[in-house]
Amino acid sequence: MKSYLYYLKYKGKYLDWSDASYGSQEATTRPLVVNCASCVNTPEQHINQNTEGRLDYLFMYVIEGDLTIHTRLGNGVAKDGTLVVIPPRTPYLIHCAGEKIYFLTVHFTGSEVINKLTEYNISLFPIVNFLNPKNHMQIRFQKLFEGFSRNDRFRDYDLSCLFERIMIEAGRALEGNVNGIILLNKSINYINEYFNKKIAITDLASMENMCMTTYNKHFKRIMGIPPTKYIISLRMNSAKELLEFTDLPIKEISVTCGYDDLNFFSKAFKAEEGVSPSAYRISSRKYKLADINKNPI
Fold first, then answer.
1. Read out DSSP for 118-167?
2. Helix, strand, coil proportions of the chain in percent (round to 5)?
3. H/E element, 90
4. Which of 122, 231, 249, 258 lies in disulfide reach of 196, CB 3.0 to 4.6 Å?
5. What is the distance in angstroms between the CA of the first residue and the CA of the last residue of the chain?
6. Residue 31 and residue 114: Cα distance in Å, rounded?
7. Cβ contacts of residue 60 below 8 Å, gap of 6+?
8. What are phi and psi of 76, to 5 degrees?
């Protein structure tokens, strides 16, 4: 599937990414307004930056790949089958940590947004919402994309209803146990927020009222890797971001990512990435922050 983008057409004019004025004006008069939506499916590195933040909310659902997200609210990683919601006026930097990324977005606003997010158990970033299954979400998004092609007086209301169905689908998955599926939302969100601290797997298991063996089994089923490897992957993704986009000393990056021992960090980094932290920094300079594509989504 190729990447594509849909804008809301208002008074014969398409809104651009920097102008959410229509959504801002409607935010106090309509419960839910969809401004635009997109699909990003690319085998290339993807970077998206908004240094001021938009006037509306950003809803992102990841189908494949890892998105590392930096905001003043906190940092996090969105993986397969997860969604994040970034609130208005929140500057952000979103970076694909791997070589391939496939995700869907909606920009939305309205007077009832907070109430609806609360009703459907959808948390704002830096909490990452973990969903399962994800097939229904893709179908819902496809119907939303199709809704933009309609050009009658019911279209805007139709888009609002279609997007609310997406939120309902997310809410069902976030109940914690859909058709017997255990999601481990509490402990996984904890890992995403505190991956650079010391985390005991026994404590994570306790959060979900499980023994460690059962917890490890369910975690691997959901995330595809054991919790220890997941924590390491978050630390390495964070380290790569800091090496690539900052001039912080490697010792400081080591501590920031949860490693007090620089030698241990260097060995762990090389084991995961195949090169030392300093070699990675040199090779990644072609992706400097100044060269970021400034066409936000």
1. HHTTPPPTTSPEE-S--HHHHHHHHHHHHHTT--STTHHHHHHHHHHHHH
2. 40, 20, 35
3. none
4. 258
5. 17
6. 10
7. 67, 78, 83, 84, 85, 86, 94, 103, 104, 105
8. -170, 170
Whole-number pLDDT of residue 134: 57
Give residue for tokens 């369910």. Answer: 218
Residues 6+ apart with CB under 8 A from 122: 83, 85, 129, 167, 170, 171, 174
| 95, amino acid identity | H
pLDDT digit string, tens, across residues 3-15: 667 765 555 544 4
Give me the helix-helix angle, 227-245 and 185-194, nearest 10°: 30
Distance CA 237, CA 9 (A): 38
Q: In the numeric block, which tokens belong to residue 118?
A: 């609360």
- pLDDT per position as a tens digit, 135-180: 678 899 999 999 988 878 898 899 999 999 999 999 888 876 555 5
Residues contacting residue 69 through CB under 8 Å, at least 6 positions apart? 75, 76, 77, 78, 84, 86, 92, 93, 94, 95, 125, 126
Q: Distance between CA atoms of 171 and 184, rounded to whole angstroms?
A: 15
